[in-house]
């Protein structure tokens, strides 16, 4: 399950925080993609990975470089392939959020609530506590509660 941070100050000092998912993906994550990426690329962007750095667009089957994936898709792939880092959620649409919330591990940050309706359980973390939340309304309340 993913771990959510709502305050940047709560992110442990030994973890890197990545704000610009697009840039990070293009520089680091794209080179380490494997077969796990294919399903995510298809589910979020409707594209098909046809080579290490190529995708077939859902629009007219045009072949594009992988850097043309949406920011939401890149964010999910960053989280999946870099579970030791914290990634900003702000560029994720609902289709990407659904996948983020289904990941077995990963770390995300947003200072406002971005919640998938399909959520099952997540860890929420502040400087003083870490707990598991498995209810949409409880997670929304945690996010909106000022500490």
Describe this structure in words.
The structure is a single chain. The protein is an alpha/beta fold and 147 residues long. Helix content is 31%, strand content 20%. The chain starts with a strand and ends with a helix. The relative contact order is 0.22.
E-strand count: 9
User: What's the helical proportion of residues?
Assistant: 25-40%
Supply the helix-strand structural class: alpha/beta
Order of helices and strands: EEHHEEEHEHEEEH
Percent range for β-strand residues: 15-25%
Q: What's the overall average pLDDT, rounded?
A: 93
Low-confidence stretches: none
Sheet having the most strands: 6 strands, mixed
Number of helices: 5
Shape: globular
Straight-line N-to-C gap: 23 Å
Biggest sheet strand order reads: 2-6-7-1-8-9
Rg of Cα set: 16 Å
Layout: helices, strands, pairs:
Blueprint: E1 3-5, E2 17-18, H1 21-27, H2 35-45, E3 48-51, E4 54-56, E5 63-65, H3 71-81, E6 86-88, H4 94-100, E7 107-109, E8 122-125, E9 130-133, H5 136-144
Parallel strand pairs: 1-7, 1-8, 2-6, 6-7
Antiparallel strand pairs: 3-4, 4-5, 8-9
Helix pairs in contact: 1-3, 2-3, 3-4
Keywords:
147 residues, alpha/beta, six-stranded mixed beta sheet, three-stranded antiparallel beta sheet
Short description:
The protein is α/β, with parallel strands linked by helices. Helix content is about 30%, strand content about 20%. The mean pLDDT is about 95.
């Amino acid at each position: 399950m993913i771990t959510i941070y709502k305050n940047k100050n709560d992110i442990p000092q030994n973890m890197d925080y990545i704000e610009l998912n697009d840039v990070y993906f293009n520089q680091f994550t794209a080179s380490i993609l494997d077969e796990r990426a294919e399903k995510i690329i298809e589910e979020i962007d409707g594209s098909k990975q046809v080579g290490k750095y190529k995708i077939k667009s859902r629009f007219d089957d045009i072949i594009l470089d992988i850097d043309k994936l949406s920011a939401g898709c890149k964010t999910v792939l960053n989280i999946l392939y870099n579970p030791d880092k914290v990634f900003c959620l702000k560029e994720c649409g609902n289709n990407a959020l659904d996948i983020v919330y289904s990941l077995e591990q990963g770390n995300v940050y947003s200072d406002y609530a971005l919640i998938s309706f399909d959520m099952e359980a997540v860890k929420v973390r502040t400087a003083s506590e870490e707990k598991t939340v498995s209810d949409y309304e409880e997670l929304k309340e945690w996010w909106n509660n000022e500490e």
